[in-house]
Every structure is written in C-alpha cells, then in structure tokens.
C-alpha cells in the first residue's frame, strides 16, 4: 500500500474518483485474475498488495482520467462497466471494459492515454502502480506468467470481436457483440444467457459501426427468429448455439 505519510499519487491522477476504502486482495472476488490460484493463499499476497494504490468508486458518466493524465497506473475493473472513446471524435467508441478487465494496457508503450474512459454505471476499480507491478513481475516468474496469460486472453477476445466488426454483416456484428458480453458474464460466474446491457443502443451502434436503425431492425429480426428476446436493455439469448454458428457463416 502507499506510504500513509507521503502524498497519495492517485489524488492528482484521477481527481473525479472517490476513495471507497481499503480492501485487502484476499477479500477480492477477482483475486485469481491477478494471481495464480496456487499462489493466492501464500505469503506472496502481501507482496502483491504493495503494488495496489487503492480501490475507488466512480459514478456513471464520470471520466476515469483527466485530459492530461500521464500513465503510471493500471486499473482492474472490480464492478461496473466503462467505455473508451476517441478524444477527437467522441462518437468513435473504441472499447468496452467489464468486471475483470484491465484498463491501461494500450498506454504502457507511450506512457500516455489516448482515449477518454467513461463509466457507464457506478463502478469500482482497483488502481495498481505499474512500476511496482513491473518490479514484482520481474521477481516472481509465476505471477509474470499468469499476468501475461491474462492480458493475452483479453487481447484475443478483442481481436475476435473486431474481426467480425470489420468484415461481418450487421447481423453477425450484433450476434458477436451479444456473445462477447455473454462470455464476460460467464467468466464472472454470472448467468450468461440473460443480461442487462449497461450501454444504450446509440453506444452499441457506434461501436459496431452500424446505424441505430440497422441495429434496431437486426434485434427485431433476431427476436422474430427466436434467437434472442429483448425488453429494453434486457436481452436473453434463446439459442446460444445458433448465434455462435452465425458467426462462421458466409454473409
């Protein structure tokens, strides 16, 4: 943890966030996202906690970062959802981050965040000092391996989704997006066939590169085919296998 007698580096780093209170890693439901399961109950836990700057809550609509934020922290989403938007063209939604996702990986190389990160609902994040984490990874090979595997999986999921968004039909894009969110919930141990979307249809259509009208027509079409059931933001996947098969079909 940060030295209580020195200024908290997070205070000037993300001014809109409010300290929720100290929380031990041992009490965190996402512990196994950070440490291998075999090491979670060992004496390595206090060592890992030394890299944690704290847990913070942020309300819906608030920015995680200021315009001039320099990279020094990685963020683990503990609960809630965020969207990343282009600072120049705010209609360009670049990514969504869900519980268990890491925010800030793209800023490591240039030590600068290019995107605005906005909470879609009241969310909680864990801030991790990157330099302290790097030192920890260099000393503990098992933790390093686990961390690399975690970011690799997150990157792979994004690549698969963007491959469909780049070349798929509107129906395939929508199906891929719903399955992507379903997979996020499944990994968190939540019901993965029934979901309440934290983002509105405008954000979804911008992210998928389709018009709001096309998104609405596609959701209606999938509903008529009894592949999904939609009520406002609640979506139920009625035929998961058929939706998955749709992604591999030629347009």
Automatic annotation (TrEMBL):
Cross-referenced InterPro entries: cNMP-bd_dom, cNMP-bd_dom_sf, HTH_CRP, RmlC-like_jellyroll, WH-like_DNA-bd_sf, WH_DNA-bd_sf
GO BP terms, alphabetized: regulation of DNA-templated transcription
A molecular function (GO) term: DNA binding
CDD domains reported for this sequence: HTH_CRP
HTH crp-type domain ranges (all copies): 168-241
Lipid metabolism as UniProt keyword: no
Coiled coil: none
Keyword Repeat (UniProt): no
Domain Cyclic nucleotide-binding: 35-154
Keywords associated with the record: DNA-binding, Transcription, Transcription regulation
Protein name per Swiss-Prot or TrEMBL: CRP/FNR family transcriptional regulator
């Amino acid at each position: 943890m940060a030295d209580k007698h020195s200024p908290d580096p997070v205070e000037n780093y993300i001014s809109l966030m409010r300290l929720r209170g100290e929380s031990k890693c041992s009490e965190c439901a996402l512990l196994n996202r950070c440490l291998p399961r075999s090491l979670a109950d060992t004496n390595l836990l206090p060592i890992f906690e030394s890299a944690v700057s704290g847990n913070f809550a942020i309300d819906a609509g608030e920015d995680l970062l200021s315009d001039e934020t320099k990279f020094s922290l990685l963020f683990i989403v503990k609960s809630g959802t965020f969207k990343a938007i282009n600072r120049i063209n705010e209609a360009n939604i670049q990514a969504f981050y869900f519980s268990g996702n890491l925010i800030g990986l793209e800023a490591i190389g240039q030590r600068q965040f290019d995107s605005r990160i906005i909470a879609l609902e009241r969310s909680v994040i864990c801030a991790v000092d990157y330099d302290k984490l790097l030192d920890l990874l260099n000393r503990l090979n098992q933790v390093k391996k686990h961390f690399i595997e975690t970011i690799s999986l997150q990157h792979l999921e994004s690549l698969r989704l963007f491959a469909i968004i780049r070349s798929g039909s509107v129906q395939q894009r929508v199906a891929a997006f719903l399955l992507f969110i379903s997979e996020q919930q499944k990994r968190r141990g939540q019901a993965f066939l029934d979901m309440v979307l934290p983002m509105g249809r405008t954000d979804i259509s911008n992210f998928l590169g389709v018009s709001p009208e096309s998104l609405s027509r596609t959701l209606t079409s999938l509903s008529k085919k009894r592949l999904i059931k939609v009520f406002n933001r609640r979506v139920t996947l009625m035929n998961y296998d058929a939706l998955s098969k749709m992604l591999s079909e030629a347009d």
